Amino acid sequence: MIRPARFGLATAAVLLALAPAALSAPSPQPANPAPSASDFRTPDPQDILVIDTNKGRILVELVPLAAPAHVVRVRELARQGLYNGRSFFRVIDQFMAQTGDPKDDGTGGSELPDLAAEFTFRRGADTPFFQVADQAVAEIGFIGPLPVMTQSSQLMPMTADGRISGWALYCPGVAGMARGGSPDSANSQFFLMRQAYPSLEKRYTAFGRVIAGLDVVRAIKTGEPVDPPQDVMTRVQVLADMPAASRPKVRVIDPRSPWFAAEVARVRASLGADFTACAISIPSEVK
Predict the structure, then answer these.
(1) Is the pLDDT of residue 6 over 70?
(2) How far is CA 285 from CA 152, 195, 251, in A?
(3) What element of type H or E holds 59?
(4) Gap between the Cα atoms of 109 and 107, Å rounded
(5) Which of 4, 14, 40, 75 is 20 to 30 Å from 114 at the Cα level?
(6) Strand 129-134 to strand 138-143: parallel, antiparallel, or no bridges (unpaired)?
(7) Which residues pair with 148 in a beta bridge?
(8) Pairing, β 284-286 against β 250-253
(9) How far apart are CA 110 and CA 101, in angstroms?
(10) Tell me, what DSSP letter sits at residue 65?
(11) Is 161 helix (H, G, I), strand (E, B) or coil?
(12) Where are the alpha helices (DSSP H) in 66-129?
């Protein structure tokens, strides 16, 4: 099965022109006091992807509420071992690192059928959404570690299912599925964001976010394609499948916690009109 080596977009130079503001990181701000134990949550081990690379370990929290079929696919391929030994064959600084191709060149995929796009999801009153900004017609917040934007919650009573549309924001660390020209052509390849890139929103399915190891993602050798030797995923596992003796203990800041609310207020006060969800980090602890 032939698969495009690129995302179905134009060149990296054109992409950079689409979102110049996303390339400027916010100035460092004084940190809040350390969070307490009650500010953390323990994620479901079925939703943690442990990616060991030759540069270090990356942990990705999968978010089934945003892209259920893609989460199932990534888990399945990890359990098949398809991701073991796969290279980061296309890595662009200030953008993303792409991997997950059995051919390691962007033209391959698994033997499983391609996936229907999950560019958006439906948010209801029961969705664990923590709002950080209200833009009247839209609301910005977090579902677990994933930054998202949705329609205004005031529209919920007016829809047939009582829900509204939402989509992921492509902030640093967000994990998305690569695809060809068709929206429904994602299969096995995925990418990890090195920086924010809003031009991907509602065009590529986001299925999770890096909660530990973003420094590793940013240390991966760049190139389009990457010259040999390429950095590789030596082993990819679902946390729940790892032996208890070697399984890392993971906890992540809960966006519903007092610490996170204080952090949002601090960042908003510091940045003013430049405030975005991408300026808010989600601390984690891995032991």
Answers:
(1) no
(2) 33, 22, 5
(3) strand 56-62
(4) 7
(5) 14
(6) antiparallel
(7) 141, 168
(8) antiparallel
(9) 8
(10) T
(11) coil
(12) 68-80
67 with 206: CB under 8 angstroms? Answer: yes
Distance, in Å, from the CA atom of 182 to the CA atom of 193, rounded to the nearest integer, reads 21
CA distance 204 to 182: 11
Phi-psi category of residue 212: left, alpha or beta, with phi > 0 → left and psi -120 to 50 → alpha = beta
Burial class (CB in 10 A: 0-12, 13-18, 19+), 81: exposed
The answer to whether residues 56 and 216 touch, using CB atoms and an 8 Å cutoff, is: yes
Range 193-208 average pLDDT: 98
Count of other CB atoms within 10 angstroms of residue 189? 28
Q: Residue 74: name the closest of 192, 181, 222 by CA.
A: 192
> Where would I find the beta strands (DSSP E) of 108-163?
121-123, 129-134, 138-143, 146-151
Query: For residue 1, what pLDDT is reported?
Result: 35
Mean pLDDT of 229-234: 98
Q: Looking at per-residue confidence, does 281 or 118 come out higher?
A: 118
Is pLDDT at 159 greater than 50 in this prediction? yes
Distances (CA, A) of 11 to 93, 100, 103, 262: 13, 20, 21, 40
The order of strands in the sheet holding 190-193 is 86-87, 232-238, 48-53, 56-62, 206-212, 174-177, 190-193, 96-99, 90-92
Q: Please state whether the peptide bond connecting residue 225 to the residue before it is cis, i.e. omega within 30 degrees of 0.
A: yes
Tokens found for residue 188? 């096995």
Q: What CA–CA distances, in Å, run from 123 to 54, 143, 156, 193?
A: 38, 10, 9, 24
d(CA 17, CA 283): 31
